[in-house]
Amino acid sequence: MSNEPDDGSDPGLVTKAYRTVTPGYRSREDTEMHAVGLAYFLVLAVLLVPLLPFVLIIWAVTRLIEYVASLPGGDTE
After folding, report:
1. pLDDT tens digits for range 21-55
2. In which domain, by residue range, is 21 found?
């Protein structure tokens, strides 16, 4: 920190660091990426929804096997 009085002539460190030769960025709506994301979701849904019954069957069989294995006398060791 310096002991010089602040007379407004020094632009400050932030202003010095912010100076650039490129124009400023103006944000805008990203509708193209919304469309890409929606298309990606729809493709995944079309591919994965038909597999859902098989996933449910495998899940149910696994649960049934775990239940049968947990019954008394199910362990043969």
Report:
1. 777 777 878 888 899 999 999 999 999 999 999 99
2. 13-70
